[in-house]
């Protein structure tokens, strides 16, 4: 799952506490479309309501609470338990906090937007993949993840862990089946079907982090990128900085063969993984 910490922290009004390099911040912020790209988005129900926002003061108090009892008492004092003890992972159709791309959207509840998670070692996301949608290759810096398919037909998945265990592990999960993505592994999920798929991602850290592999590889200096790849001829006339600007935002479109089979258009201009 991709989420922009910068976006979240801005929304929560505690930017001052989070140092960042403005240039990097701009480059890393996904360029979300104004409206969503989600096929068959979930409908609002009479329990749907916006998630609350928190002041910096509230977040600081939650962080400083010494025991779970203090923390929960404090959070309960913020207001309605249906706001502060509940998190709505429904994408609002136009903007999700964890992924917005031509392949679908993702919503993540983690400690910065759901502070009751503080100290729990847990976060959770829901991924809404369009037909042929791909949760592009990424790692979670601080969490192991279990991906469970809760709607749709199937999900193809893969991960590659580390030296000594560096052959990919592939699984194809069916409805209500889950699979593991070990902490730090490069992994992906692909909905190779003509219908949408929804998966729940359980994460073993309240601040799981995400690093998109292609984006964070190609952001490095041209000669370093070239050298990492042994100066391949296919990069001879390629400016890798410019190339990076063409990377798709998560969730990306998946394999072209799927689009062909399903009779839907693969949009060649899906740049948006970064702000140009
Ligand atoms: C989404 O936004 C784009 C550009 O802002 C617009 O061209 C398009 O019609 C919009 N689509 C929907 C479904 O509103
Ligand atoms: C939302 O409601 C519409 C109209 O009833 C329905 O066609 C659609 O399938 C619903 N979406 C989901 C995800 O259930
Ligand atoms: C919400 O809708 C369901 C039916 O969809 C109904 O049974 C329930 O009473 C409603 N709750 C409220 C608070 O309106
Ligand atoms: C690549 O293009 C960017 C402008 O898009 C430029 O700033 C940079 O110097 C170029 N890199 C190389 C190695 O030519």
Automatic annotation (TrEMBL):
Pfam families: Cupin_1. Residues 87-225 form the Cupin type-1 domain. The keyword Cell membrane does not apply. CDD domains: cupin_OxOx. The keyword Signal applies. Belongs to the germin family. This is Cupin type-1 domain-containing protein.
